[in-house]
């Protein structure tokens, strides 16, 4: 089992909550699917540093991830940059999106940081559509026919992560 540290670098309250949820829910999925990675917050080991970047527009539902990997494809260190905030269009105008939607964006970038480069399906889909909740907490992202949260990893993604980390 490899511990991978997730460091939250001065990101706001919504992103902090979303990243903590992403770490917890990804760990549960990794354990259930037999992927030998455990994410820790403020731990040790190879580190994914998460920060926000004003150059990434908040209407986007993705961030930017740069990872340095070793000869086996394992991440040595990575930097994830997220939009400062996520927004969603509603009938009464644009508002900030809730933590659930933010969790999906953060988890997607964390899985990229773990060496999953391509876009496939479910959490690692190329294209996701915003689905407005009755309240911000109910906002979700839709990949194909699947809305998240809860986070879902495709069999391809599980296979790819196992090839790297198991
Ligand atoms: Zn991506």
Notes on the structure:
The chain is of the alpha/beta class. The chain has a single domain (2-159), classed as Collagenase (Catalytic Domain) (3-Layer(aba) Sandwich). 28% of the residues lie in helices and 30% in strands. The protein has three helices and ten strands. The strands form three sheets. Strands 2-1-3-5-4 form a five-stranded mixed β-sheet, with helices on one face. Helix 1 (13-33) links the parallel strand 1 (2-8) and strand 2. Helix 1 crosses helix 2 (99-113). It starts with a strand and ends with a helix. The chain binds zinc ion. Zinc ion binds at residues 62, 108, 112, 119.
Distance between the amino and carboxyl termini: 8 Å
Please write the string of helix (H) and strand (E) elements: EHEEEEEEHEEEH
Q: Which word captures the global form?
A: globular
Instruction: Report mean pLDDT, rounded to a whole number.
Output: 95
Number of domains: 1
Indicate the CATH topology: Collagenase (Catalytic Domain)
- CATH architectural designation: 3-Layer(aba) Sandwich
What features would you highlight for this structure?
five-stranded mixed β-sheet, globular, 3 helices, three-stranded antiparallel β-sheet, Collagenase (Catalytic Domain), 166 residues, alpha/beta, binds zinc ion
Quick structural summary:
This protein has 166 residues and is an alpha/beta fold. The chain has helices at residues 13-33, 99-113, 155-165, and strands at residues 2-8, 37-41, 47-52, 64-69, 75-82, 87-90, 93-96, 129-131, 140-143, 146-148.
């Amino acid at each position: 089992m490899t511990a991978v540290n997730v460091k939250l670098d001065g990101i706001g309250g919504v992103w902090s909550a979303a990243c903590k949820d992403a770490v917890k829910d990804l760990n549960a999925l990794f354990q259930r699917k037999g992927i030998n990675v455990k994410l820790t917050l403020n731990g040790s080991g190879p580190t994914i540093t998460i920060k926000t970047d004003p150059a990434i527009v908040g209407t986007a539902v993705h961030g930017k991830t740069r990872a340095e990997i070793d000869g086996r494809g394992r991440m040595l260190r990575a930097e994830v940059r997220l939009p400062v905030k996520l927004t969603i269009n509603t009938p009464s105008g644009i508002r900030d999106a809730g933590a659930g939607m933010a969790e999906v964006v953060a988890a997607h970038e964390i899985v990229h940081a773990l060496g999953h480069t391509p876009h496939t399906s479910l959490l690692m889909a190329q294209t996701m559509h915003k689905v407005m909740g009755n309240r911000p907490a109910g906002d979700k992202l839709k990949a194909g026919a699947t809305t998240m949260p809860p986070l879902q990893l495709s069999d391809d993604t599980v296979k790819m992560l196992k090839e790297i980390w198991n």
